[in-house]
Amino acid sequence: MTIKVLLVDDERLIRAGLAAIINAEPDLSVVGEAADGAEVQDAVARTAPDVVLMDVRMPRLDGIQATRALLAAGGVPPKIIVVTTFENDEYVYDALKAGAAGFLLKRTRPEEILQAIRTVMHGESLLFPSAIRTLAAEHAPGGGGPGGGADWHGRLTDREADVLRLVARGHSNAEIASELFVSPQTVKTHVGNVLAKLQARDRTQAVIFAYETGFISPGA
């Protein structure tokens, strides 16, 4: 199956470079481009992409607002990867909380960009543990989040809590399975249960929620 990608960036050169990298792959194809977040919903409706590479800072409508609008539109939204220049960009954190599956730096190597697109298509989020810890450390622990309530962690079994901690370290399902001596399918089930109990859209939102509520310490 060919993975369809929409490029959203106000710099034409960036879009051209990404298109060249992506279109060179037999399983990937750029189906459209947009120069601003305000154009995203129309572009998605027109091209039906699987993945959107979304610049986080744009002049009219930034990537955060565009992400929120896209995910609120209903239906099955594409996976969104925000692209930024600085990993400690506050916009990145807001975009991840809004529902982006992960982020990439503009200096990321081409092969890593391609792998990122494939990773989110397989249902796993792009987590960069050190960057997430840095961003999360700037936000005081509280009781809010997707699942709400201070006692949310009591809903998790011990094994689900272990899985969430390993997800926060950036481990894939296969790596978690190896660590816990269970099957990848069992890990997938646990991850699904964690997301459902936390009412989180994806792994990234669950991890951010865990940091913000103090379940996981940014300094750990």
UniProtKB/TrEMBL annotation:
Ion transport in keyword set: no
Residue numbers carrying 4-aspartylphosphate: 55
Keywords, sorted A to Z: DNA-binding, Phosphoprotein, Transcription, Transcription regulation
Biological process, per Gene Ontology: phosphorelay signal transduction system; regulation of DNA-templated transcription
Database matches in InterPro entries: CheY-like_superfamily, NreC/VraR/RcsB-like_REC, Sig_transdc_resp-reg_C-effctor, Sig_transdc_resp-reg_receiver, Tscrpt_reg_LuxR_C, WalR-like
Source taxon at top rank: Bacteria
Species of the source: Actinomadura harenae
Keyword Phosphoprotein set for record: yes
Residue stretches making up the Response regulatory domain: 4-121
Protein's UniProt name: DNA-binding response regulator
Residues forming coiled coils: none
Domain spans labelled HTH luxR-type: 149-214
GO molecular function: DNA binding
Pfam family, one: GerE
